[in-house]
Amino acid sequence: MLPTDAPDLLIQGGRVCLPDGSCRTMDIQINQGKIIQLAETLEPEPGTTLISAQGLTVLPGVIDPQVHFREPGLEHKEDLHTASCACAKGGVTSFLEMPNTRPLTTDQGALDDKLKRAAAKCLVNYGFFIGATKDNLDVLNQVNPTCGIKIFMGSMHGPLLVDEEPILDQIFSRGDRLIAVHAEDQGRILERRKQFSDRQDVAAHSVIQDAQAALNASQLALKLSKKYQRRLHILHLSTGLEVELLRQDKPAWVTAEVTPQHLLLNQEAYRDIGSLAQMNPPLRTAEDNHLLWQGLLDGVLDFIATDHAPHTLEEKAQPYPQSPSGMPGVETSLPLMLTQSQAGRCSLAQVVRWMSTAVAEAYKIPDKGAISPGYDADLVIVDLQTYRPVLRQELVSKCGWSPFEGWRLTGWPVYTVVGGHIAYDRGELKTQVRGKSLTFL
Ligand code: DOR
C-alpha cells in the first residue's frame, strides 16, 4: 500500500452498515485512506482526527455508474469540479462518466485528457467510459483505464450513434470488456418523430420515444450479448416490458440499472415541471414505476445510476423538441433512496447494495463498496432522523436545479469521506480534497 497524505481518522459511535446487511454501533479506524479496524470502541491514537457519528448512520460511499459531467467542451452546463462538489455533497464518492463530451471520448488521447482534468479538480474518485463509433473498433478494447465501452444505440446523433446491427455485431464480437448500452431503437424514434410532428408539448417525448423503442433495443443488445456471451450492461432501463424481458431471460453475464427518476417520477411530471422532466429514455407510466421497483426488489435489476445529465435552465426553457433531454441527480440520489427505505419500500441494506456494493462488483472495482478492514475509506455518514426539502438555492451542481425540488427527504449526508479525506463536512465542501482514478480489474 502506498502511503497517502490522508489523515488518520476515527469515526466514533455511528450506526455502521456492514457487509452482511446488518447495522451496528461501532467505531471505524482509518489509516492512510484505508479502513483498518472496526470495533465497539476504539481508542484514538495521538494526532487522529475524530468524527462523532453518534445518532448518524455510516454507509459505503455511493458509486454512481452513469453520469454526464460535460467537461471538456460543455462546461457552461457543468464541469468536473462542480460535478464532483455535487457528488461530495450527495455522498457519491466515485463516478463513472460518459463519453458524449466535446471532443468525444473515443480514443486514448481524449481519455487521457479527461483523466488529467479529473486528477486536477475532482473531489471524488473517477472512471470514464470509452465511446463506440463505427470507426473505432480496435481502440475500444485497447484504451486504458476504462470502466467499459458505451454504445448509444439510439437517442444520439453524430459519431456516437451506433444503431446498425452489423456494426453492433462486430463490437460485441471483439474483446471481452463490459459493453454498456443506451437501449433505444433509433429507427423507431425517427419514424415516430415524423408521425407526431404536430405535437409540440413536452409530454409527446414519452409518446415518441415509447416503451417499444426501448424494448426493441434491449432485445437486440441481449441477442448480441448471448451470441458472443459478451458482458452486457443495460443502462437506465426504463420500462416494465424490459424488466419482463430480463425476468424471462437474463444470462449470468448481463446486468441492468435503473435511475431514481424512472423509479419515482412518471409522465405526470411534465404537468408540474415541464421539460425539466424530459430525459432519454423518457419517463414512463405509474405502472412502469411499479414494475421497475419490483424488478429491483427481485434482483432482476442490479443497481442504481443517476444518469446525471445537467442542462441550463435557459436551455431547458426552449420549446419542445428544442429543449434538451437530461436531469441532474448526484446531489439527491442517496437521500431519495434512503427516504424510500425509511418509508419501508426497501431496506437500508438494499440501498447500500444498489448504490455501492453491486456497482463495485459489476465493474470489478477493487476494495470499494463495503465497510470492512482493507477496503478504501470511501464513506458517507447520513442523518436518518431529519427531513429537509430539496431547495434550489442549496444545490451546487452548475445547472442549479433539480426535478425533485420541494421533495422532503431524509438521509442527507453530514460527512462524506473520500480515501480517508473529509470532502464534505456538515454543510461545507472541502474543495482541496482530490479523488483518485478508479481501477477496473
Ligand atoms: O437524457 C439524457 N441526456 N440521456 C442521455 O443518455 C444523454 C443525456 C445527456 O448527455 O444530456
Description:
Catalyzes the reversible cyclization of carbamoyl aspartate to dihydroorotate. Keywords: Hydrolase, Metal-binding. The chain is of the alpha/beta class and 441 residues long. It folds into two domains: 9-58 and 375-390 and 406-429, Urease, subunit C, domain 1 (Roll); 61-362, TIM Barrel (Alpha-Beta Barrel), CATH 3.20.20. It has 14 helices and 19 strands. The strands form three sheets. Strands 1, 2, 3, 4, 5, 14, 17, 18 and 19 form a nine-stranded mixed beta sheet that branches. The chain has an eight-stranded parallel beta sheet with strand order 6-7-8-9-10-11-12-13. Strands 15-16 form a two-stranded antiparallel ribbon. It binds (4S)-2,6-dioxohexahydropyrimidine-4-carboxylic acid.
CATH class of the largest domain: Alpha Beta
Tell me the count of domains: 2
Beta-strand content: 15-25%
- Protein structure class: alpha/beta
CATH topology of the largest domain: TIM Barrel
The shape, in one word, is globular
Summary, kept brief:
The chain has 441 residues and is an alpha/beta fold.
What is the strand and helix layout of this fold?
Elements: E1 9-17, E2 23-31, E3 34-39, E4 49-52, E5 57-60, E6 62-67, H1 80-90, E7 92-97, H2 108-121, E8 125-131, H3 137-140, E9 148-152, H4 165-173, E10 179-182, H5 186-195, H6 204-208, H7 211-228, E11 232-234, H8 240-248, E12 254-258, H9 260-264, H10 269-273, H11 286-298, E13 303-304, H12 313-316, H13 333-342, H14 348-362, E14 379-383, E15 388-389, E16 408-409, E17 412-418, E18 421-425, E19 428-429
Parallel strand pairs: 1-4, 1-5, 6-7, 7-8, 8-9, 9-10, 10-11, 11-12, 12-13
Antiparallel strand pairs: 1-2, 2-3, 5-14, 14-17, 15-16, 17-18, 18-19
Helix pairs in contact: 4-7, 7-8, 8-11, 13-14
The structure holds (4S)-2,6-dioxohexahydropyrimidine-4-carboxylic acid (DOR).
(4S)-2,6-dioxohexahydropyrimidine-4-carboxylic acid (DOR) is lined by residues 68, 100, 155, 182, 279-280, 307, 309, 325-326.
